[in-house]
Request: fold
Amino acid sequence: MSGTRISKGGLIDRSTLLRFRFDGRDFTGHPGDTLASALLASGVRVMGRSFKYHRPRGVWGAWFDDPNAVFNVTLKGDELPNCPATTTPLVDGMEARAVNAWPNAESDIKGGLDLFHRWLGAGFYYKTFMWPDWHLFEPSIRKMAGLGAVDGKVIEGYVADQLHDHCDLLVAGGGAAGLAAARAAAEAGQAVVLVDDHATLGGGLYQGDEPVEGEEPRQWVATQEAAIRAAGGRILSSTTVYGIYDHGLAALAEDRGFARAPRLWRMRARRILMATGAMDRPITFADNDRPGVMSLQGAAEFLGRYGVLVGRKIAVLSNNSQSTPIVAHLRAAGAEVIEADPDEGTLRALDGKRLSGVQIGGRKIDCDTILASGGLTPTVHLWRHAGGKLDWSAEKAAFVPGAAPQGMVAAGAANGTFDLDPALAEARAAALGNAPETVATGYRIKPLWPQPGAKGRQWIDFQHDVTLKDVELAARENYVSVEHLKRYTTLGMAADQGKTSNMAGLAAMAAIQGRPIPEVGTTTFRPPFVPVPMELYHGTRRGQLVNPLKRLELEAQHRQAGGAMCEYGGWLRPGWYGPDQETAIRAEVLAARQAAGVFDGSPLGKIEVMGPDAAAFVNFIYYNTISTLRPGHIRYGFMLRENGLILDDGVVARLGPDRFLISCSSSHVASVELMLESWRQDGNDPDRIFVHDTTPHWATLTLTGPKAQQIVAALDTGVDLDDFPHMTLREGQFDGAPLRIARVSFTGDASYELSLRAGKAGALWQAIMAAGAPHDLRPVGVEALSVLRAEKGFIMVGKDTDGETMPHDLGFGVPRQKKKAAFVGDRALHSDTANAPDRRQLVGLTLPEGALPLATGAHIVTTGPKPRSIGFVTSSYFSPTLNRPIALALLEHGSERMGERVTLRHMGQTATATVSAPCALDPEGERLNA
Amino acid sequence: MQLFPCPFCGLRNEREFHYMAEPGKFRPDTSSQISAEDWAAYLYDTRNEKGRVREIWMHQTCRELFVMERDSVTMNVLGSTSLRASAGEAAE
Reply:
């Protein structure tokens, strides 16, 4: 016989019935049940199949320590994979399926795999599927392995809240110690947050159902909760502290119901009190994984919390004193209990179709359930997350908290204090920062560890199917470090993270090697303590909120003009105007060359550098000499990194003797500003130089083309355009606001860059469009602009340069040879690498009319039997102006190859082109002054 | 997530900070000859010490650089000084 519901006791509401299905059969339970407790109460024992051998499995523990019962659960069409049955609260209408089993857990067709266990030990995959190639076998093995299946549907609104909070004292664990500590601290005026993963607090108090300080457990818990709240403390139930991070940061996952994403609390605590209790460990014996072999503590929890008696005739195999109150509780609930010393003889679970008894040496005990307890292991995960040390207690045969991490303290069973009254005293003292009195423990244990060489299949890790023989194999093959043992056998690597298996595994390794357990040590404890969905970390950081786009002041105007808005370097900009990309780009390029174009250059960097030392500073920052630049004039130049590589290019304008305007690339504003700020403060007198990024405050509209000047002249700016040479800047006004007009050109045609306060951009756009209408002015998008600049051989940093490009590779070698003053990156331009003769240099590639444009990224290769890449295409377009394809490339010895025909390869295709100067249009620059 | 003390803004989340450099490292005077070894040492050699370290960080939200002292093993923060005050101390 298996589990039954007793008529009274537990924390469930028997007056309400909840219906659910498991593996196709109908069941009922009550509010307060978990899926596991409701199934146990209905007599179900087999709740899953093991990972590798497909052995039938029942629940082992009653809470987060259970490795066996893992379900795919559906509720109202929402499905979640891999729900632990023991921690999933039962909801009316749930449909659960055991994972890794088909058609169901009771009769799984892959159950036969277990017959081949002799050949399926640890490392079997690595050894067996080596020849001819692992990848041949991988798909089918992957299909066999794994737990739940994802149905692929997105659950509406599955978004995790993420909260930031802080407190004086965070108490992890709402059992006896946690409640006592939280109350003491709250009443002493501390801001306390008490966190417990159960819906109902009380921890292990319901296991033995004994009075606490003279009160019934439920009553005592209620008294403490009320007192905590009255003193201003907060209680978060159904919430797990799953990780401790630096500087007192605790990560909390709050369960908000099935198919709702948990809520993440980032709780910054001045102090953390760990009152997380202790877990029962399994005893390692033959067939200890059979359904019906359970944790003693787990059975006590099922009885105390859910009113479920897990068996009628129960054999209790316990080596420690925690069993006394639990056995009394089981007997009071009507079970027949036979206690036996597990050390009396060799153990073996006996079963036919159902568990029928236990063999102890020569003695056989008839029973339907075996409750095993190998001793209590303090739940020290959080302690180790925070960097606390562990000490081995021989008296308690367990690792207990040792040297404390900063701001952290442990109390109660988590601290190895398993007796109730000392635990309460210890918790109250710890809450107030006092040292507790040391009280002799009443806990007694006769250590019992796995015995190497023992007969039969003895399970160490139930979830990953690791047996004692696998540990022995690992030791034979010299995987003796626990970290190697873990990875070789996958012990402790399952979803339960070895909560039941780690102690047994390291004790087995210690026994095999004849070393003491503390010398073998534990593996690293890492968050999360319990499985949490990835969504918890993700939260609302999705879509636009991950990396918000920068928006243009004139976005509405661009859209109205038919602008196709695309992302360029973090900005949402018009790529082209009109429904058809190709015709639009062609028309825009031709308009800019033949009449006039206007483009929105607002994302272009506008960083002002001011102050008495500004001139020397900018001269130091730039590769080019800037000190000789006169006010009102503009110069093109590069900024380098100290390793000589190009950081950015752009123009710098001198607005006055002590004031410069740095116009960096749209996508490099942040990195340039950071570089300027770092040199300003580290290496200069920060009171004599000021760096101010004004990029978002100014909008820029650039008019370019033969008609550009006439259009600007039609605007009322107060600037005389007649004596206004290329590469100078004038200040005027528009609509009462200051206006800057810069004569710089990214197209090769005469251009006027108009910048003004962003709020006035709409008015300027309107005025330009009106003034331009008689001149066939067209708005020009980013794509057409890229073609226009490529026709001129103008580079885009990051596109036509890479992580090896120096300015002399682009034909800008003069400052490297001539500039006297120190500048960023100067020495690196004379390194062996910089002087290497085979550097890749910028060139143009010329193709005949009618040829297809080259692929960007296509490699230029040597001819001969073993072709080698000597360069690659960085930009490639069809030029409407020249009516043929154009391209820029970085090519070894590029400047010496002018006129040479080269071969290009891309994705199996071959092409040829002629090396030419980068500038394909108007090399003399006559159009600038046309 | 760690808490770092900006000397100007107080304790703030580590995400607001950016590591900049090692203090006490000076740029060679490139107006005179610098050997390749000295330049390489300036570019690439970092002490990357275990234990107590001094580092220059930027608090990105206020843009100020400062020197922070911390323990690279325990992650304990031992203090911070503005870069100017730190430069003043070094000069004395």
Remarks:
- Chain A has a mean pLDDT of 95.
- Residues 202 and 779 of chain A are 71 Å apart (CA to CA).
- Chain A has six domains: 4-108+282-373, 157-279+375-440, 459-514, 550-603+697-788, 607-693, 796-929.
- Residues 217-230 of chain A form the longest helix (14 residues).
